[in-house]
Design a protein that fits this description.
single chain, 304 residues, Arc Repressor Mutant, subunit A, D-Maltodextrin-Binding Protein, domain 2, 3 domains
Length: 304
């Protein structure tokens, strides 16, 4: 006989009879009538060419062939039940899964501290790996499972599932006490400086964040760029020790201002607000671990 000849339901009937040693009790366990269970057993007997069970006091007793078959059937049914039940099961507290994220260095500074704190509390065995991909590769990497999520301002990324996390805007971060503030009218806020204030600043930028470089180009201030660095996290220290300014998202800049030693100006920008989104693949949307981490990210970072 071939496995294609066997109905899975016949194996379930066999397993129930083997476990109960009684056809009537097996039918009750499966929610079948006694004749239906007997008919299933008869079909399996014919397929296997063995009686499988013989009459015994109080029910039936397995044949040697049934004893050998029972081990394989129980393992197979158990594996199937585990696989089918997995769709609704994910225990973050017990999981050791590694989630892979696309994040820029700015994104790492913005999202990873709070996320790691929550994982430490709720899912201490879960690991994260973060690395930036070229934006053109993000959707393909999500669909292939090379990354699980992408977070950021990714306007060129299409064909993904997405949810808005927050709206941010670009500002200029300076050191506290920068000479540009002497240009402000006494008694008025320092933030609404005119474009003329921007034109006297020199700038530092980071190579990997093309949008900030584009802003300087649109403002025709690219000739005021004195330093192009490789890593974002070097910029605040450079700003604090110089009169250089840096165009950056307010969400990140505010943390430096709150810590002390920095100030923000908000002149009119050609690219003002932008949306930071969470991206994932439709292919993995119903995966329980994906669903859990997705909801965790939304709970932590989505603006209400």
């Amino acid at each position: 006989m071939h496995i294609n000849d066997v109905d899975l339901n016949l194996l379930r009937v066999f397993d129930a009879i083997y476990g109960t040693r009684n056809v009537s009790r097996a039918a009750e366990r499966l929610g079948l009538t006694q004749p239906a269970a007997s008919q299933g057993l008869t079909r399996l007997r014919l397929l296997l060419g063995d009686a499988l069970f013989v009459r015994a006091p109080g029910g039936v007793a397995p044949t040697p062939r049934a004893d050998r078959l029972a081990v394989a059937v129980q393992q197979a049914l158990g594996t199937l039940e585990q696989a089918l039940g997995e769709a609704s099961q994910f225990d973050p507290a017990q999981s050791h899964k590694t989630f892979r994220l696309h994040l820029s260095d700015i994104g790492e500074a913005r999202f990873l501290p709070r996320l790691m704190a929550v994982l430490h509390e709720q899912a201490p065995g879960i690991r994260l790996e973060s690395s930036p991909l070229p934006h053109a590769d993000v959707a393909t990497a999500l669909d292939a499972g090379r990354i699980d999520f992408a977070l950021g301002f990714l306007p060129s990324v299409a064909d993904t599932q997405r949810a808005k996390l927050l709206t941010d805007r670009y500002i200029v971060l300076l050191r506290a006490g920068h000479p540009v503030f002497s240009r402000c009218t006494p008694g008025l806020p320092a933030t609404p400086l005119a474009f003329a204030a921007l034109s006297v600043l020199d700038y530092v930028a980071v190579r990997s964040h093309s949008e900030t470089l584009r802003i300087l180009q649109l403002l025709k201030l690219d000739d005021r760029l004195r330093l192009t660095a490789a890593h974002f996290l070097a910029l605040p220290a450079i700003v604090k020790e110089t009169d250089l300014g840096v165009v950056m998202p307010l969400n990140i800049a505010q943390g430096f201002v709150d810590a002390g030693g920095y100030a923000i100006i908000e002149p009119e920008m050609p690219v003002r607000s932008f949306t930071v989104s969470l991206h994932w693949s439709r292919r993995f949307e119903t995966d329980p671990s994906n669903r859990w981490m997705r909801q965790t990210l939304l709970d932590l970072f989505a603006e209400t």
